[in-house]
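User: Show me sequence and structure for the first protein, then do the same for the second.

Assistant: Starting with the first protein.
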Amino acid sequence: MLRRLLVDGRDTFVTQETAEALLERGDACGLRLVLGAFDGADDDTADHLDDALFGVCCRSREDAERFAALCAVLVEDPDGAVRGEARRLLGRSG
């Protein structure tokens, strides 16, 4: 169900709000769901997922450090899509 909300190409408001709520958790589980949603997301949906990531995870230095630490954990995730997105984001923030 969450995955469907995260990749709802017809309603990117739902996509972004769902992603932001998951990211507000500040844990690997929420971030993992959002990173996994990039797999198969159209360009517009991916833009909204990125907006949610950087809007929530990079509001402060502490947020950015926590985000980087979570991505560092997720580069070892069993899901290749999650691993790839975590690597992409670490490259962007580093």
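Switching to the second protein now.
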Amino acid sequence: MLGMFTKGGLLMWPILFCSVVALAIVIRKGVQFRTLLQMVLLAPKQAFSARPEPLLPLLDAVGSGESEEDINAVGTGIVRNMERGLGTLSLISAICPLLGLTGTVIGMIQAFQVIASAGTTVNPGMLASGIWEALLTTAAGLLVAIPVHVAHHYLDSRMGEIVYNLQTLASKMVAERSNAV
């Protein structure tokens, strides 16, 4: 595996870096969203009475009698925190195939340089290293980009579900607060 990595050329390093960053973001966001989803969907009353860290600003805004606009602003802050990292995933899923394509172009340039320097005595073995690099970087870029794109889509849909349920819950709490007064 390491041999294939090194044969892929210099562009394998940024592809590897992108994959490590993407994996870290997916794990962090997966845990964050799972926790929030459990709080909001599975046990909303317990979540609000337990006052969990991610929802504290919203709970404080609703509990202190702030206006609906202020509560929406707090909710927007929570959503922006949830969005953090998703843009990076989107960027990684877009640039990894481009890095792979760049590796393809570099590999083909090398193959044509071999052809140009060899003149009329070209054999397939002489072209193999350039083509090998081209194929490896393309494959690596796609192998990173495809799962990252899928993970981004999944996390984005989970976030939408959390946001919807947070809005519903906050509206219910505001209504209960209004009815209690």
